[in-house]
Amino acid sequence: MKHLKKLTLLHSNDLHGDFLAEEIDRNLVGGVSRLSGYISKVRNEEKNVLYTISGDMFRGSLIDSEFLGVSTIEIMNLLAPDVVTLGNHEVDYGLAHLLFLEKCASFPIINANLYIKLNGTRLFTPYYIKEIDGMRILFIGILTEEVLARTKMEGLVGTLVDVREAALEIGKICDAYRTDDIDLTVLLTHIGFEKDRELASMLNPAWGVDLIIGGHSHTLLDKPCVAAGIPIVQAAVGTDQVGRFDILVDTDNNCMDSYTWKLIPITDENCPRDTALEEIISKYKLVTDAKYNRILTRFPRAYSHPRRNMETELGNLFAECLRRQLGVDLVLLASGSIRVPSLGPIVTLKDFVTAFPFEDSVHEFRLTGAQLRRAAAFLLRDESFTEGSHTEWYQYSEGFRCVYDRPTRSILSLAMNGREVRDEDLFTVAMQEYHFLGMKDFLDVSLEEVQKNGPIRMIASMARNVLEEHFGSHELIRLDGEPRLIIRE
């Protein structure tokens, strides 16, 4: 007769400093107070409960960015996750600062990928073994260079390049630590849903991986995706929901016997508030409110940004305002750097910084017409239109117009300021630093090619400062109304 023990495994990913509840249809949804209340409720109801986070605790909220993640770590300490893995935004404040934040955390942070190039020393513990009710659960943290372009700025630090290398690293860890005493093996990944499926297909069944709990692509699921016999899940983004596994673990055969999984909405109905956590949040909120609650500007109406992989009103507005301030031909603004679905009509400094939290500098370079056409075709490849895709997408400033035919995967027209782009044309282009440094991956144009076109220079230390200055000196900024992208299906 098998010996079965029940394990309840709760999981979040891509919290992005989503600390506060929001009102939706007259109901308060999300926020770490109710998330903490639900976790505490389950911990009291069930015998064996673990809570994990699959990366990107940081970035996306004013409270997080104002205190450089220290506020987030204090709040996460009260949530008391059992184990956390790194996401790409964990390094936004620099690797040195991340190592400092790790020392502030009262929970283990694992990562099998980041290492010092000179001697191969890992920066973080690659795995964590949690013992609970006689069970031993092995967690392995995975992140690849495909989602971690910022480490390219750190000359001494490397990471795994792709999921194939990640799979080999998982094999090494499982061979070394997955002894007969390990009852369940869980991968905590931050590589995106499609890469999780690819990774699952590369894992040797002998390594005994039971689950993949992922992040990065913000994928909303109604049931687990099973690839190569391994259930793969995510919990979308933020604190509006939390994933829940109820697992029967076969402690004789060291594997998962059966499971159920569901996504739990974080609402008043099923999640009590954590008032102690609310006091900590209010301490930070008072500081940010006092500093950021002044009115910055006013739009004629609210401008929308419903999702990252489409042309949006707010994206067009930000890109064009940057172009006017910087005096370049074209701004390619990373769509993912806009973190709200809409902004306005009244815009406080708090609203703006919440909408555009990143602090990247801006670089100016030159692209030929041929390179611009190649970049446009690459950005509009099929993968970019996939639902839930986390490929890089850009918003364009005024004057850019591309007509793209999806059935034939071809650009029918590419024009700047009403004139068809010729291969020999040369345009000054501005991009945020993160995307400029990763342009080979993001635009299919290398830095080496661009350097041949003329000098490259940093023209602003922070894109957000440029936009703040423009908004502060302009009222009722209107969109030109011209589409930048025309997609023919």
Task: Please give a quick description of this structure.
The protein has 489 residues and is of the alpha/beta class.
List keywords for this structure.
about 500 residues; alpha/beta; Purple Acid Phosphatase, chain A, domain 2; 5'-nucleotidase,  domain 2; 2 domains; six-stranded mixed β-sheet; 29 strands; about 30% strand
Describe the structure.
The chain is an alpha/beta fold and 489 residues long. It has 2 domains: 4-285, 4-Layer Sandwich (Purple Acid Phosphatase, chain A, domain 2), CATH 3.60.21; 293-488, 5'-nucleotidase,  domain 2. It is 29% helix and 28% strand. It has a 6-stranded mixed sheet with strand order 6-5-4-1-15-16, covered by helices on one side. It has a 6-stranded mixed sheet with strand order 8-9-11-12-14-13, with helices on one face. It has a 5-stranded mixed sheet with strand order 23-19-27-22-28. The longest helix has 18 residues, at 275-292. The radius of gyration is 23 Å and the shape is globular. The termini are far apart.
Query: The CATH topology of the largest domain, please?
Result: Purple Acid Phosphatase, chain A, domain 2
Task: Kindly name the structural category.
Answer: alpha/beta
The chain-level mean pLDDT equals: 91
Broad CATH class of the largest domain? Alpha Beta
In the CATH classification, which architecture of the largest domain applies? 4-Layer Sandwich
Q: Helix count?
A: 15
Low-confidence stretches: none
Distance between the termini: 58 Å
Number of domains: 2
Work out the number of β strands. Answer: 29
**Rounded radius of gyration (Å):** 23 Å
State which percent range the strand residues make up.
25-35%
Helix fraction, binned, reads: 25-40%
